[in-house]
Amino acid sequence: ERCILLSPDNLSFILVKPAQLVIHYPKECDFRPFCYSAPPELLKYNKLLKALGIKQELEPLQYLDILDNIREEMNLAKKQLNEDQHFLQVCKDAYNALILLIRRRSSIV
Length: 109
Hints:
About 45% of the residues lie in helices and about 15% in strands. It contains 3 helices and 5 strands, in the order ββββαβαα.
């Protein structure tokens, strides 16, 4: 599967799948390490990003993937959900953003 090299903190590098990258990332959310914003320097290659399968904005299935990945992480680490505030916040952000997206799309129809 294709991967894209990112430097989210400008100190280290990670490889992410195109499904983990989005062009218009919700500003009020932080879904790392499950999803990342496309770096500004890559935005000028919009056609290439689309060809690689990177979405303009997070889609409902991507939110569900984020939540599923969190569930898997929690099961692997055998942690209680309330023990890790970051995962709890990512869950809340994903849920709220998904609901807003569904409401926005349903009002268009």
